[in-house]
Amino acid sequence: MSFPWPDPGTPLADVITPMPVIDEARVAANIAAVQAHMDKIGLLARPHVKTHKLPHLARAQIAAGAIGITCQKLTEAEVFADVGLDDILITYNILGAARLRRLAALNTRIDLTVVADSAEVVAGLATAGTVDRPLRVLVECDTGANRCGVTTPDQALALAQRIAAHPTLRFHGIMTYPAKGGVAEVEAFFRQTMGLLAAAGLDCPVRSAGGSPHIWQAGGMPSATEYRAGTCIYNDRAQVRAGACTLDDLALSVQVTVVSRPTPDRAVLDAGSKALTNDLSGFDTFGALAEYPEARIVSLSEEHAVVDLSACATRPAIGEIVHVLPNHVCPVTNLFDRVVFHQGGVVTRVVPVAARGTVW
Amino acid sequence: MSFPWPDPGTPLADVITPMPVIDEARVAANIAAVQAHMDKIGLLARPHVKTHKLPHLARAQIAAGAIGITCQKLTEAEVFADVGLDDILITYNILGAARLRRLAALNTRIDLTVVADSAEVVAGLATAGTVDRPLRVLVECDTGANRCGVTTPDQALALAQRIAAHPTLRFHGIMTYPAKGGVAEVEAFFRQTMGLLAAAGLDCPVRSAGGSPHIWQAGGMPSATEYRAGTCIYNDRAQVRAGACTLDDLALSVQVTVVSRPTPDRAVLDAGSKALTNDLSGFDTFGALAEYPEARIVSLSEEHAVVDLSACATRPAIGEIVHVLPNHVCPVTNLFDRVVFHQGGVVTRVVPVAARGTVW
């Protein structure tokens, strides 16, 4: 039996649950606000599409003024290349013969840039470019996030020189995913590295920073040339906590149904970790209820959310439709094959999440 | 470009990462051990398929002696009905006109049983059965898990009487998902409720308990007639912690690649929350590394796992293939379109996760 996807014009309240529902006007406003900010501070925008995974939103970001997109994995980039996005940065170490063969194929058909933080990764990448069409590589730098990346400007220089020595690669610049609020650390690392590179005679046209939580502080990195941010297209509770937006800027919520009210203080929703994710992001609740701000989602099973209503003056009834505001929106959209867009409470379109599950 | 799925006979080490890889022999042994235990203690087995979501494993469980399967959502049950599973219990309150229409259709083609914990749910279910083919309903009971379920035997009796009063429904028994280790609480609740039902002249043929962590204590519930368990087909770290299995019984791991070694004490894996989930299940690490038991996965981004190697005597190299043992296996399989089975390190088959994403 086919799934009961709503037709355009359907009232939002009639949409099946659990379902991510996305406000068209807020998405458009978020795209415009980010691009206006980037234009104002003189950074090129390269939005990270891992948040939405949707071709039509990537195109909207390009139309607003973005120079290209950022993907986190090779197969994610392939999905977007297949629908016409032709300038893609993959901010991930790509390793292994099978992946490198596909990377080589992708490099023949779009303007592709990748990253590396070790000699091992560079050696693999060198097999994916050609002398006629070198693969562009940025050196990933760790500016305090303690994830990937070379940890000193000296290491960045050494890896850049190694990249530049390969005729099938082109050293194209440096990138970082900063720690929370670490704008000053990024600027210091970039400036020192640029000095070392210049002294060594290496051009460094791209200095790529990113991250939604501190996007409004991005002007504090005059050495950066481009900015990658994903979450800010939808926003979420972590963005509100970071001071990067208000609740009115949240474009995505998960529409759910109250399926049980076993006690006066407890409600159960038809959405668990397989719809909302277990991502606490440092909060003490697995998301907030838009209609009942005092409610707390205290535990998740795979298909149930248990809600503590003890602080709520009014309380939902069995069968009532409510909306969960995610702590972290990016992994939520990855759980659904399709998402529903709406305008003013009326469905506008149902869109396949084209790059869902592209973790390879 | 099509995805590079491995052919049967491929060495496991050549399988793309990240990828759940499942040991055929351990799955078979886990199915057999659970069924032998159920036979020994005189409980009917009704495995919960939400863990594997795979038709061929549901059929293997039936072949071993299970009387039917348990599903958590309506669309999950539809997937299994479509491939021939004909005795299904859906342990979830089903609400809303669209869902109830589909439930009515499903009830015409398989032996279907559902649950209810409120008058509102019963009223809806009554529209999905017919006088000629009543829908079978169990009363869900809360025996300490604080999720769904009536909270007293008196409430169970009242709801059973309400179900029995509907000519389109048949009261068929009681079910519970117990709190951790709460075998005694289940037995007490079931026994009291059975007494009340008998006094009221209501037959209660099914008394359904479940849960993998305390499956080996299920003999402590002589009032129960059937048992639902999911995780025990694969097992995971939470099962080991519960004393329900050993590490040698874990049938599923996530094969990953070490993509970075930025410092002596840090490794980064090509699997983050979109491959492993953020499910800590009370642990202080997002899974264990089979090859490096002292390693700790201290943080996850969406596509990165950051591993603390400080306690490891030997340490993995960049490009090395390792295996993550999940804290909680069920939400992991839900993230992947396909999973890879192997026998002795050689791929046997690649199987679509037929019921992935069926949260409706």
Based on the model shown, name its key terms.
homodimer, Lyase, Ornithine Decarboxylase, Chain A, domain 1, 360 residues, nine-stranded mixed beta sheet, TIM Barrel, elongated
Brief summary of the model shown:
2 copies of one chain form a homodimer. Chain A has 360 residues and is α/β, with parallel strands linked by helices.
What secondary-structure arrangement, pairings included, does this model have?
The structure is a homodimer.
Chain A: E1 19-23, H1 24-41, E2 44-45, H2 55-64, E3 69-71, H3 74-82, E4 87-90, H4 97-107, E5 111-116, H5 119-125, E6 135-141, H6 153-164, E7 169-176, H7 183-199, E8 206-210, E9 226-228, H8 237-241, E10 252-263, E11 266-269, H9 273-276, E12 288-289, E13 296-300, E14 305-308, E15 321-325, H10 330-333, E16 338-343, E17 346-352
Parallel strand pairs in A: 1-16, 2-9, 3-4, 4-5, 5-6, 6-7, 7-8, 8-9
Antiparallel strand pairs in A: 1-10, 10-11, 10-15, 11-14, 12-15, 13-14, 16-17
Describe this structure in words.
The structure is a homodimer of 360-residue chains. With 360 residues, chain A is of the alpha/beta class. Chain A folds into 2 domains: 12-20 and 245-352, Lyase, Ornithine Decarboxylase, Chain A, domain 1; 24-234, Alanine racemase (TIM Barrel, Alpha-Beta Barrel). Helices cover 27% and strands 24% of the residues of chain A. Chain A is built from 10 helices and 17 strands. Chain A has helices at residues 24-41, 55-64, 74-82, 97-107, 119-125, 153-164, 183-199, 237-241, 273-276, 330-333, and strands spanning 19-23, 44-45, 69-71, 87-90, 111-116, 135-141, 169-176, 206-210, 226-228, 252-263, 266-269, 288-289, 296-300, 305-308, 321-325, 338-343, 346-352. In chain A, strands 1, 10, 11, 12, 13, 14, 15, 16 and 17 form a 9-stranded mixed beta sheet that branches. An 8-stranded parallel beta sheet of chain A has the order 2-9-8-7-6-5-4-3, with helices on both faces. In chain A, β7, α7 (183-199) and β8 form a beta-alpha-beta unit. The longest helix of chain A is centred in the first third of the chain and has 18 residues, at 24-41. The radius of gyration of chain A is 22 Å and the shape is elongated. In chain A, 56% of the residues are buried. The model of chain A has no long low-confidence stretch (mean pLDDT 97). Chains A and B meet through α4, β10 and α9 of A and α4, α5, β10 and α9 of B.
